[in-house]
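FAQ: What does a multi-protein file look like?

Like this. Sequence, then tokens, then the next protein.
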Amino acid sequence: MKEFLRQKGVPYTEKDVSADEQAMNDLMERGFYATPVTIIDGEAVVGFNRARLEQLLGS
């Protein structure tokens, strides 16, 4: 995921749910229990779904 975003020139904030309890709580409050979760303009993508990510990024 990180490499994909870097290649696209997309800035991102990484949160490590294994080390950051608040990040884990935020993820669970959104109803997600798997990672990675990428949120683009309020839309969540669970896992690495290249087609959906490119659609949301407009690329």
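And here is the next protein:
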Amino acid sequence: MDQEALRFLIRLKIQNGRLPHDRIARVWSSPSDGETCDACDTILSKEQLLMEGTTRASGRRPCQFHIACFQIWDDERRAQRRAQKS
């Protein structure tokens, strides 16, 4: 998936609540065990590093991302929060 399409998908998921709009309170990484990335919906290979984190919102399971998807998610959620404040 190209970068702009990925950014658009992540932006939509933040807007419709499928990805959190708040920051992740605790983040850790580990080798993947074949998890699915919550941002791009593809499976992380066992050679990839999994970024996982929890938000402060109650009832949400930890989010799982590719490293690049995590970075894009963080950029997009910050941009949306800045836009809401303007």
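Q: Is there any per-entry metadata?
A: Some entries carry free-text notes. For the entry above: The chain has two helices and three strands.
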